[in-house]
Amino acid sequence: MKKDIILGGVGGQGILTIATTIGLAALSEGLQLKQSEVHGMSQRGGDVQSHLRLSSDPIASDLIPEGKADMIISVEPLEALRYFNMLDRKNGWLITSMNPFNNIRDYPELEVVLSEIRKLPRYITIDANEIAQSQGSVKAANIVVLGAASPFIGLKYSSLEDAIRQLFSKKSEDLVQLNLKALKAGRDFAEKNRRD
Amino acid sequence: MNRLLLLGDEAIAQGAVDAGISGVFAYPGTPSTEITEYIQASKEAAERHIVSQWSSNEKTAMETAIGMSYAGKRALVCMKHVGLNVAADAFINSAITGAHGGLVVVSADDPSMHSSQNEQDSRFYGKFAQIPTLEPSNQQEAYDMTRYAFELSERLGTPVLFRLTTRLSHSRSGVQRRETLSQRELSLPSDLKQFILLPSIARKQYNTLLGKQAAFQEDSEKSGYNELFDGKDKSMGIVACGIAYNYLLENYQGGKIPYPVLKIGQYPVSRKLVKELYNDVDSVLVLEEGYPILEELFRGILDDGKPVKGRMDGTLPRAGELNPNIVGKALGMEIPEGYKIPEVLKSRPPLLCDGCSHWDSFEALNEAMKDYSPGRVLADIGCYTLSALPPLESINSCVDMGASITMAVGAAEAGLVPAVAAIGDSTFTHSGMTGLLDAVNRKVPITVVLLDNSTTGMTGGQDSAGFGKLEDIVKGIGVEEEHIRIIKPLHRLHEENVKIFKEELAYQGVSVIIPRRECVQTLARRMKLKHTQKKTVKESSAQ
Prior knowledge:
The complex is a heterodimer of chains A (196) and B (543).
Chain A: E1 2-10, H1 15-28, E2 32-36, E3 47-55, E4 71-74, H2 77-81, E5 93-97, H3 110-117, E6 123-126, H4 128-135, H5 141-153, H6 157-168, H7 173-193
Parallel strand pairs in A: 1-4, 4-5, 5-6
Antiparallel strand pairs in A: 1-3, 2-3
Chain B: E1 3-7, H1 8-18, E2 21-26, H2 33-41, H3 43-47, H4 58-70, E3 74-80, H5 81-86, H6 88-97, E4 103-109, H7 123-129, E5 133-134, H8 139-156, E6 160-165, H9 166-169, E7 171-176, H10 199-222, E8 227-229, E9 237-241, H11 244-250, E10 261-264, E11 266-267, H12 271-280, E12 284-287, H13 293-299, E13 308-309, H14 324-330, H15 357-369, E14 377-379, H16 403-413, E15 419-424, H17 425-442, E16 446-451, H18 470-477, E17 484-487, H19 494-506, E18 511-515, H20 520-542
Parallel strand pairs in B: 2-3, 3-4, 4-6, 5-6, 9-10, 9-12, 12-13, 14-15, 15-16, 16-18, 17-18
Antiparallel strand pairs in B: 1-7, 5-11, 8-10
Helix pairs in contact in B: 1-2, 1-8, 4-6, 11-14, 15-19, 16-17, 17-18
């Protein structure tokens, strides 16, 4: 098993939480992993990415080579475009939230951004904010996106659920439940709306 | 022992705790910050009473560590690459004094300048100080090498430089721990003159350092971190340093590398292994993160040996960090293409946070400066450097820690009056105080805006050394009390703040304006913690 995942978003949107959840799930399944993170300057409202590599064999590079990513998971649509060059043309999936994070002056028309995404052969666009809100809080939007990506990661769904319990139980049981519901809602959406 | 999922930085931290350090000394700086933070958060480290409070700057950190080494205990010093410039005086001289207790200096380089002002290569400092330098390729090596570094430091009586780069600092992977060593007992060096660098003793000590070079070389020859792998295709030999080795491996998934490969993790470079490789191949490709240090050595001044490929001939880019694709191209491989990045994509530079006090400070300063020609605000390193970008575009310089005040002094002496310095509270206590003393002694007309958000914000909110002491420090340095103005940077006080800025800009002497409001990030964290603690108290009292 080998899965190379690019996570994209804007500083503060919770991509490291997605990375940690997948990482914990992968560890529980006995996989090797490398996860590079962005710290420092870009965390202040700039674009952030994380390279997450899972494999049953040893992993060499901390960075995923261009054109080799099995998935892009983005919590922001414009940020999804930033990593198109990383995606494997043969079978790569793009899963992105369609809720723009507009903190720049020249943010393009959302429809233009989405139309670029729709040119890809395999993608899911999801209104993560609305779905997260319907499950209790917009704060769980990142986990909704993770749920939408979950059918393609190659990990057991129950491993991801366990990882969420492990990660959020330190904070509160309410958060555990919110995020489990968010994960499920994202997954259900993906099963119904996948484009491939 | 348990297997942990650790950042490269954290692997060094855990490695140091397990190697029996008694203290870690550091000033925050990306990408090195997480080493010290990990030890600060570690229960084991607390139980073992490992000292881990932040230092005022990298020089004080380095010197404190030298003191701990003098007293026979193991000390770790951590900084980002440019921090080593600040600590350089102490660092270079620590090679001459030598170490007693193990002394390891971690310098985290930032090629591609993700969060830095330059991409200098710390391996040069290892050569400059003439001490052994280690460079891990992965998280496990980072852990193992840390213990090895302390052992090497004590065995050869020398500080050891430990170099890593951003990608390893901030990438997580599984690390196997080893048993924890106990800390060293208090003991002084057998020669109590060893640390007195008076010329007569320094000359002797320097000769001792020169005499150790053969032992450093010998250690590299035997080191398990330098390894030569054979390959059938002798048309090329590859030298791969540190993390570059991973990018090389990545290009041969599942297959053996056809060329002989020399993997390097310890410097000075093993002459024996280099000779063995060089004599066996027709050409050499050098893969190193940072400057072409080894490549230059391979080429020599005349570059008339076997063909050498690397950063100097364009095989690899001269600037910026390596990655698997760049290395793949250097190997002549076909690089798979992903999708074209749509042209509609826009760049998204970092920004000051919503509600950040710096917005209000710079909006007021911008308005107060309208009466003067542009180009008068010399600034410093921190979140507020982002005020260089639109929409604020408030500042005109960012050079090195503390340079705002001293550059303003120089500009004012040249006739640029008023000249303004903008500096954060943590940067001020790091390197701004001495410059302010120069300003006071020269009675030069500058206005210092000492932006006090009561934290080291850019690196994630570490304690600021001058917290609660800033006015006293400024007053003690000699700034007149009536020209020390504390303001609250809030939108609703904008007019009032503009007026204060204007008054001090007009003053023909040194004035210091302190806009004071806590960083919104640390405030939010504090409130959250308070909330959880309250809740816990409620719950436990309900039981």
